[in-house]
Amino acid sequence: MRSGPYTFVYYCSGHGYGHATRVSAFVCHLLSLEPPPVIHIVSSAPIQVFADSVALGGSSSSLSLIICAKTTAALYRYADIDPVIVQPLAYCVDRQKSVEVLKSFLRKKDRKLCEESQWLRELGADCILSDAAFLGCLAANQAGLPSVLITNFSFDSVYSYLSTSLIDSVTCPSNLDPYTLQTQPDIERLSDIPIPIETMAPLVEEISRGYRCADLLLRLPGAIPIPSFTVSPSLPSPAWIDYMLRTFTDEVVGHLNGTPCEYAIHPSISFPSPHGRKPIPREVRQAPLLVRSPNPSAYTSEGRRRLLSTIGVPPHLHDPVHTKILIVSFGGQIFYRPKSRSPSTSVTPVPSSTAPKTLTGSASEISRKKSHELLRERPLDPETLTAALRSSSLSDRKQNTSPSRPPRPLLTRNRAGSQLTIPGAPPMSLPNSPMTHRSARTPPTGNIPAFNFVPPSPLRNGIERKSGWDDDPFSMDEVHIENGIPEEAAPRLLPDESWIAVVCGVSKEWGRENGEELPDNFYVAPRDVYMPDLTAVADVLLGKLGYGTVSECVDSCTPFVYVSRPLFIEEHGLRLLLDNQGVGVELARVLYEMGDWANAVEEAWLKGRDTKAKKRREGETGKRKEEGRKMARELLDWLEQWKSGRVDTSSRS
C-alpha cells in the first residue's frame, strides 16, 4: 500500500469554457479525498478559471492555487498543449484557419512531447488525466505512466468533421470592428468551404494516435463516439450524421445508449522501451455529470434577493412568482463593436482566389497570450484572483482604456436603429421601430441569400419542436402594409413585461456611454458573478451550445435556448443530453440577430417550468458532489489496480 498521496497531472484543453469548468469540478472532488492527492493542472486556459476560491502561493515555475479545501492544493502551469478550433464567434467555425492552427501545432508536437514527458518523469507523477488534450496521453505513454481520458468528445472527431459537406457560410461577423484586434481589417464574410477528407485524414490520424495511448476513458454525459477507444463507430465523423434528418444516425445513437462494457475496444499501445507492456487492459466507463455546483443559498429567498441586488435588480422584481429571469451568456469569446444593423446571412462559397480576408488569430489565442503574460509579469493578489475565478467567461475582459480608444458601448444607435452586442455573438437588432422590424424581415433586393439548414433539435415524443418562424425566415406568409408589420408579428426580445434579462460578460458601464441606456428590463451581471448561482435563479438561459452551460442548466433544471454550432460535432451529443435530462429549444441565428427571442424563450419556459419549480423547492441536494467524490474514489481504485496489475471488472458499466 502506498504511504504518501498520489501525484496527478491534469492536462486541460484551452479550447473553451466547458473543459476548464469540469476540470475545476473534478479537481475539487479529488482534493476532498483523504489523503488528498497532489494535482498539477497544465493548460493554455488562464489560471483564473480553475477554481472557485483561490489563494496565491509561491513557485518559481508556476502559480499555486488552493481549490475547494483549506490545506490541499492544485498547482497550475501554463503550457501550449493543444491546437484550437478557430471560432471568430461563439457559433461560427473558420475551417481553413483551424486546419492551419492544427498543422502548426503538429509541426511542434515532437518537441513538445519530449519536453512534457521529461517534465513528468522529473516530477515523479503517478498518473496523467486529460480533458481532452491528446498530447497529455502521448506524454504519459512516453514516460511510462498510465493516462485517463475524461471527456465527452475528442478532437480527432471534431477536426474530422471539418470535412462535412454541410455548408455553414455565414457573415461572421457582419461589418464588425474587432476592437481587441485593432490591426486587423474588418471581415465582410467568412466563406465556409469543406476541407477535403484526404487533407484531413492524415492530420486526424496523428491526433487519434495520441488518444490511443490513453488507458481508461471516463466518458461524460453529452458524449459523442470516442473512436480512439471504441472500434465502431469509426472515423471519419461526417459519416455519423444522417443528413436527411440532420441528427446522429440510428447506429450512433444506439452505440451511445449502449453499455460501455459491451463495446469492442482497441487494444493498448505498449510503452516504449524500457517500460514494457501495460499491466491491465484498456477500459471505458460511464462517468457522472461533472459540473460546478451552485451555493445552497441560491435556492433560498434571501440568497436570490442578495444575488439580484448585486446585479442592480430592484427589490420589487425579486419575487419569482411575479418576475421571470432570462440569462444571456455567450461566454469565452471575443468582443465586437457593431457598425451595422443587418443580421448575419448565409452566402454561397466563393472561390479561394476571391475569398475575403480572415482573422490571423482566434479570441482564445489572444486571451491565452494575454493571461499568460499577465500572470508571468504581474502576479495577481488573492482578492483579484478570487473575483476573476468566479467569472462567467474564459476571456480576459479588461477593456482598452487608452484615451485614443475609449471602451466600446454595449448599445449603439444610428439612423437605422439600435443594437445590443453580447460577447461571442454578432450584434442583435433591437426591435424598437416598425422600420427596424420590416428591414430585419424583408429580404434584400437582387439575389436572395441561400440560408443554410442547421440540424434541428432531437425529437421529443416523436414531435419535432417548432419555434417562431420556419428555418427560412422569409417563408412565413407576408403581411404587406405601408408602415411596418403588425405588432403580433414584430420581433420581441422578451415574452412580456413580467420578464427581465441579465446579460453576462460585459462591464457595468457598457450601454450607458453617450447618454444611451439598456433596453427595458435589461440588467448587466457583475463580471465576477458565479455562473452556477446565476443559472440556478434563472428561469431560462440563452447562449451557445457548449458543455459548461448545458451541464449547469441540466443540474439546475434551467431551460436552455441555444444558438446552434453546426460545424462543431459535439453539439449533437449535447442535444441528446438536453433531450434526455433537460429542456433545450433552438433559436435560429437570424432570429437571434433580429432580436426575436421571445417565442423560443416562452416555449422553453413552458416546457421546463414545472421541473424548475420542483428544483427550487428541493434546493441544492449535494447529489453532484457525491457523484463526483464517488468517481474520484473509483479513479484511485483503478490506479491501485494498475499499480498492482490486478483486473477488477466490478466497477465497469
TrEMBL record:
Regions of compositional bias (Basic and acidic residues) in chain numbering: 366-381
Membrane spanning residue stretches: none
InterPro entries to which the protein is assigned, alphabetical: GHMP_kinase_L-arabinokinase
Region (Disordered): 339-456, 610-629
Comp. bias intervals (Low complexity): 341-358, 384-394
Source organism superkingdom: Eukaryota
PANTHER family (alphabetical): GALACTOKINASE, SLR1395 PROTEIN
Protein's name according to its UniProt entry: L-arabinokinase
